[in-house]
Specification:
31% helix; six-stranded antiparallel β-sheet; 23% strand; alpha+beta; globular; nine-stranded mixed β-sheet
């Protein structure tokens, strides 16, 4: 496992910002510029301002200027607190999903990016070059990380027990709500004996990247840049990380559905290919279609007893919700390369991409025309197809945590946008100063 170290985590003073909800937000990779500008305009001290600067500029601001004019000023004004003593931070996140309350416990730490430890980080997705270049440039100029990577650790559940004991021992040092009614509480751990004990407990265990593949790759590239320049990376030799047990009951993976903006080629031929490969069953007639009902149906996909991959599909031309079940007679070897790791080839999302998107719909793997929109919001996708904004949406079930870890152990990658670990760790909760 990469060595984990305590760090001086900068955080807001919620008494100065009237709570955390006005200033913390989604990770930087989630909001588009319009949404980010709206969040910044709602509060002058929103954490996204550290990365975006002035929303009225109409584009990303110059991060090095932002650091000088915003970050240091906020610390001088007492809006941000920079602890003098390095610490681990226990994080409790309480949230509601589908009407049920959940709790997730994790440990904020600085995880070493030393080359000897780099194999201790195990990703399950690749990165997109354009996105990665932007993040590296941002780190080089800003020298701040306001969003951690979210990682899982293989254990027998003991990490959650240890963290639960720690949070029950005393009141939190920082607490507040986010703008989705989630509750965040932080406990600062500075006792050197406790820190050493936690380090020993987690030694020799890899960290599985659940969310933040681009943030991790950018942190590593920035560290390499400093080394190439002959500089000591200092804090940039580590990456801000939230570590959570794989057995934590608060870890959820949402399915990411596919909205098809345009169906290339002949629609009749597409239908023939679909009928050749899948058993098609109508589960909701047009008059029964309700976006929230469709969302509930997608959640029930995971409860199916079928051993064959299953998906739901809605098309604008007939307005029905149909279940697609891969025929048992179909050999996936026709569509999935022999070099594909079995841990990847067995996934429903792989069948969706290789069989439906590439073969049935004839969408190239790299999707050069951006015909696919990815979203975890099944109800919104249904409304868009009903309105004719897009001709089709495909709904799938979520992969299981053990499937994701198995792919990472195999050194393989899942197809793009295969996982949506929920809830996201908000930006600005803990800020890692690389300068």
């Amino acid at each position: 496992m990469p060595k984990i170290e305590p760090f001086c985590g900068v955080h807001y003073d919620p008494q100065r910002t009237f709570g955390l909800s006005p200033v913390i937000g989604p990770p930087q990779d989630l909001p588009n510029l319009e949404e980010a500008s709206r969040l910044i305009e709602q509060h002058p001290y929103h954490s996204l301002r550290l990365e975006l600067g002035d929303p009225e500029a109409g584009n990303w601001a110059q991060p090095d200027q932002v650091r000088a004019s915003v970050f240091e000023r906020w610390i001088a004004d007492g809006l941000l607190i920079r602890p003098e003593q390095p610490a681990f931070f226990v994080h409790e996140h309480r949230y509601r999903q589908n009407g049920i309350y959940h709790r997730r416990l994790g440990l904020f730490a600085a995880a070493s990016l030393e080359e000897s430890a780099s194999t201790g980080f195990r990703p399950h997705e690749g990165t997109i070059p354009g996105n990665l270049r932007f993040r590296v440039d941002l780190l080089r100029q800003l020298r701040l990380s306001i969003s951690p990577i979210f990682t899982l650790i293989r254990d027998s559940g003991w990490l959650g027990v240890v963290l639960a004991d720690l949070v029950h021992a005393r009141p939190p040092d920082l607490s507040g709500h986010d703008n989705e009614d989630g509750v965040h509480r932080l406990w600062t751990l500075t006792d050197p004996h406790l820190i050493a004990w936690l380090q020993d407990l987690m030694a020799e265990r890899p960290l599985y990247i659940a969310d933040g593949h681009h943030r991790f790759a950018a942190a590593k590239a920035y560290r390499d840049h400093l080394l190439e320049q002959g500089q000591d990376p200092g804090p940039a030799g580590s990456v801000l990380t939230l570590i959570v047990s794989e057995f934590d009951p608060g870890v959820s993976i949402l399915p990411i559905h596919r909205e098809i903006r345009e169906i290339p080629g002949d629609h009749h031929a597409m239908q023939e290919r679909l009928e050749e490969l899948f058993e098609i069953e109508c589960v909701l007639q047009p008059e029964q279609i309700d976006p929230d009902l469709v969302a509930r149906r997608t959640r029930r996909l995971a409860e199916s007893a079928s051993e064959q991959p299953e998906f739901l599909m809605i098309r604008h031309d007939d307005q029905r919700l149909c279940r697609l079940r891969l025929k048992e007679s179909v050999s996936l070897g026709r569509f999935i390369e022999p070099s594909t790791a079995p841990e990847v080839g067995d996934l429903d999302v792989t069948v969706l991409h290789r069989v439906i998107l590439e073969h049935v719909l004839a969408i190239p793997r790299d999707d050069p025309d951006n015909l696919i929109i990815y979203s975890a919001d099944a109800a919104t996708l249904t409304r868009r197809v009903q309105a004719g904004t897009s001709p089709m949406a495909l709904f799938m079930t979520n992969p299981r945590i053990e499937q994701v870890l198995a792919v990472a152990d195999a050194g393989a990658y899942m197809p793009q946008k295969s996982t949506y670990f929920y809830p996201k760790v908000p930006a600005g909760l803990i800020i890692y100063d690389l300068g």
